[in-house]
Design brief:
The protein has 104 residues and is an all-alpha fold. 75% of the residues lie in helices and 0% in strands. The protein is built from three helices and no strands. The protein starts with 13 loop residues before the first helix and ends with a helix.
């Protein structure tokens, strides 16, 4: 708005606007501090059973869990790719040797 500085409130004196702005800031800060305190008072801000079940599903006990299974699947897929390449190379080599033996 033209003619008003950032802290002014239309219809209020500069002193009244300062009081309102200061109180608004203090109230917002206090509310934020209370919210943070409420979340950090407990060792687990969420339902700890749900978080424990989620961690169990993701990490498991070392033999199970999404993280372990995905890692194993990645290793197995990489191994299969190399087995397929080796099989194709052996097949092509055998076919080449067969063709060379026929040509003689």
């Amino acid at each position: 708005m033209a003619g008003h500085d950032e802290g002014s409130i239309p219809g209020f004196t500069p002193e009244q606007a300062w009081v309102i702005n200061t109180l608004q800031e203090r109230v917002a800060t206090k509310a934020a501090e209370k919210a943070v305190a409420a979340l950090t008072d407990k060792p687990c801000p969420f339902d700890c059973e749900d978080v424990a079940e989620l961690k169990s599903s993701i990490y498991g006990d070392g033999a199970t869990g999404i993280k372990t299974m995905v890692t194993r699947h990645d290793e197995r897929i990489a191994s299969l790719v190399w087995w397929n390449r080796a099989t194709i190379a052996a097949t092509l080599t055998t076919m080449g040797a067969f063709l060379v033996s026929l040509a003689r």
